[in-house]
Amino acid sequence: MAKKTSPSKLALSLASWRNQQRIETIANQVRSHSARLDNPPKIIVFNASSRLSGLSQNAAFTLITGWALRLAGAQVVYFACQSGMSHCVLGTNREDYTRHPPCEECIVQTKRLARAFDPHWFRFQPDLGFEKELADLTVSELEEVEYLKPDLGWVEAIPIGKLVLPALRWALRRYHLPDDDPTRYLFRQYILSAQNIAVQFSELLEQEKAQVCLIFNGIMYPEATARWVALQKGVRVVTQEVGFQPFSAFFTDGEATAYPIRIPREFELDQRQEARLDAYLEKRFQGKFTMAGIQFWKEIQGLSEEFNQRAASFKQIVPIFTNVIYDTSQVHANVLFRHMFHWLDHVLEIIRSHPETLFVIRAHPDEMRPGTAKQSHESVRDWVIANGVNKLSNVVFIDSQEYVSSYELIKRSKFLMVYNSSIGLEAALLSVLVLCGGKARYTQYPTGLLPKSLNDFDELAEALLTIEEFEFPKAFLRNARRYLYYQLYRVSLPFDQYLEVGPKAGFVQLRGFNWKALIPKNTLTMQTVINGILLGEEFQIPEEQEWNVYGSD
Known about the structure:
Shape: globular
Number of helices: 19
Distance between the termini: 54 Å
Radius of gyration: 24 Å
Strand content: 5-15%
Number of strands: 14
Number of domains: 2
Largest sheet: 7 strands, mixed
């Protein structure tokens, strides 16, 4: 008897088939209508870490940008993985590190996505001598491993252990790695896979003489390795990440996960822009927002009467907002403290020495995201319990799935401590002072306090806790509003005319658009992206065009 397919599975299969048909149709049209240039610019595209068989936002951004590049006359070489890594980031099984990734279904999708491009397939061909060198190394020794291949024209050895480390932490959902056989095995396999990519990507650059590389993220080890090799050879690299509006992308010549944003010194919000930002913030402070397609707050609860009664017995309230320890932003954040838990250990001593203050430690909502594989294996909750923080009389711990209003908490606070969470920017927008423990994207401009040393951090914390009153710097509010406005309406390039929510959580699908919508002159987003890649212009929406892109919200 044939097995019945449930209606939900049938709908999912039909939606997937329809999306595949749209991808293949547009790809064929792009190939047929691409501009023919005598000396076309060559662009190498590499994105191996944003999807397996599905279509994530970042995979879609890469795909659509590649199509637009082809229509603009560029030759797009797609560096494509054909079981080119023994273990990849998304294909890592956290229950069994030795299980091989699902290469077959991934390759099928890669062939579909690469249809309009010139694919250059790479397979796993490790250096056996190098593999022997890694065999008996500890985790800490593997972190320091370098690899040098002078015949490829590298000026220096690639710090391959350090390049791999952030991806390993991300895959295992932890910062501190145990020095055990499974972890050493996976670390070695990532390093060997990165070495393979380094060699083959270097050879591809020599072969193609590309002008630019378009690379996803730049932190996951395949792309981090390719980026390092390209920069060693003097080839320009553009990286991409999700933007700060739904279905929007961020492109930069820098490190996309750090979100470098250049705001002209003379830029000031006019009355219309101020109103636009206020309307956005009104929704934001009600929890009505998404990040990378995820809505964290299903509902927001006010501060309970129990909390208010407890807080009344303290002199002041200081919230402490943490982040997800394995998040790739930590690569940029760890400039003052070694890592977020080092910061928390430091803050714990401050908590113990100020019993008159109620400290509210808030875990990041993504730390234990239900229904996904993203739950942290090293969490703030575990740190709180292990250090007995939950037993201190002057501490309230709010776990990641407690939907208490952060904004009500901010308004009640004397000041905030954050590591590098975006809530620090929101606090500045509410005119509340922020003491940062790590570098955040918004600390590019003075929006809060980022000490230069541990001593400075201690002195500032002590001063803020003991001074009766202090004035919030007006410049911090100005910079916060300018930064948020640029983040939302200038550098978040909208792809919503091409994409919509897919039937499977976390994935997207193509809208039924015409291929002509990808021609740069026909859409401001593609014009901005393609001019940025081919001509080196800024990946920003011009001021005179911003209202045509996002309208009045």
